[in-house]
Write a structure and sequence with these properties.
With 313 residues, the chain is α+β, with helices and mostly antiparallel strands. The chain contains 13 helices and 9 strands. The chain has helices spanning 46-50, 118-122, 126-135, 147-166, 171-190, 193-196, 203-216, 223-230, 234-245, 249-267, 272-278, 284-295, 299-310; strands at residues 41-45, 56-60, 65-73, 76-80, 83-85, 91-95, 101-105, 110-117, 140-143. The protein has a 5-stranded antiparallel sheet. A hairpin with a 2-residue loop joins strand 4 and strand 5 (83-85). Helix 3 crosses helix 7 (203-216), helix 7 (203-216) packs across helix 9 (234-245) and helix 11 crosses helix 12. The protein is globular, with a radius of gyration of 20 Å.
């Protein structure tokens, strides 16, 4: 772990420990959260927003919006849910919808932040849906390697920004195409050419499944219940999820529930029993067993470990 991020996200140097409030949700950092429309897209230079906040973007999340943070020069300390990293430039940080994230940039860092509604990109395009599902299955840092790849990515971001700024006739079609091409380049590097090029008719189904899980994970719906709501058989749903993500539909549901449990334990200073009920568990003891089975730690042990890490001990 990078020393620079040891105190993320609980305290800054010289401050007293304080209770972790609920994670703020923004459309864009520092701006009021609104339900994004399907066509939402925004691009800006890292300095445009970060310099106003002393190059530090505190923990927050975006509902329904994915982000691509491209760093071409300088440096950044990254917090993605409960993991930290200090990647070297050039690199890209992939932030799925709902991911709690925070950035601390080296002053003068050069790069761009692209924010877009994942649902619009995938709507009516099974290939794009499959690509997006693979690319944003989990938060990640992608090393761009040599200068050639970084230059190609910068050129694609130039195309996105040109369409975003000029808004010439047909710009919505052009910007969708530019974003899709950008994600193809990233997917080829991050998940491999074979999965990046997979044109599967199941991609749109998996996209709808992921959206349903995101909306109703605390209801503890079975795979069969998800399949019924999506209008397909349980076996078809499971095959589609395995083909796109490499794991079962059941594991996908369980991992989303676990992710929310980790977020609450880190960011909300409430008793574990209260958090268990908020997560849809009828019995806190069952939540303890669920959490320990999947992490090797009890919720209390996990919370203490995260607090020690946040304090740099």
């Amino acid at each position: 772990m990078c020393a620079a991020t040891n105190e993320y996200p609980a305290v800054r140097r010289g401050s007293r420990r304080r209770a972790r409030p609920d994670v703020p949700v923004f459309s864009l950092y520092g701006e009021a959260s609104e339900a994004p429309d399907d066509g939402f897209v925004h691009i800006e230079a890292i300095a445009d927003r970060s310099a106003r906040y002393d190059w530090e973007i505190d923990r927050h999340a975006h509902h329904g919006l994915a982000q691509v943070l491209a760093v071409f020069a300088g440096g950044v300390d990254v917090r993605l849910d409960d993991t930290a990293a200090c990647p070297e430039a050039p690199c890209v940080v992939l932030v799925p919808p709902g991911c709690v994230h925070a950035f601390r940039f080296r002053p003068g860092t050069v790069g761009r932040v692209l924010t877009f509604a994942e649902s619009r990109l995938a709507q009516g395009h099974p290939e794009r849906a499959s690509l997006s599902a693979a690319l944003f299955a989990a938060p990640a840092v992608v090393d761009l390697g040599g200068a050639g790849e970084a230059e190609r990515l910068a050129g694609l971001l130039d195309d996105v920004e040109t369409e975003f700024r000029e808004r010439a006739p047909g710009w919505t079609v052009a910007i969708e195409a530019a974003v899709a091409m950008l994600l193809v380049r990233l997917a080829r590097r991050h998940v491999g050419p074979r999965r990046a090029e997979a044109a599967t008719p199941e991609g749109e189904l998996v996209g709808r499944f992921r959206a349903l899980v995101e909306a109703r994970f605390a209801e503890h719906l079975s795979v069969g219940a998800h399949a019924e709501l999506l209008g397909v058989t349980e076996s078809r749903l499971d095959r589609a999820v395995r083909a796109v993500s490499g794991r079962s539909a059941f594991e996908t549901i369980q991992e989303r529930l676990l992710l929310e449990a980790r977020r609450k334990l880190v960011y909300i200073a409430a008793p574990v029993s209260k958090l268990a009920y908020e997560l849809g568990f009828e019995d806190p003891a069952y939540f303890w067993r669920f959490f320990r089975r999947r992490t090797g730690m009890t919720p209390t042990e996990f919370r203490k470990a995260e607090r020690r890490r946040a304090d740099g001990r």
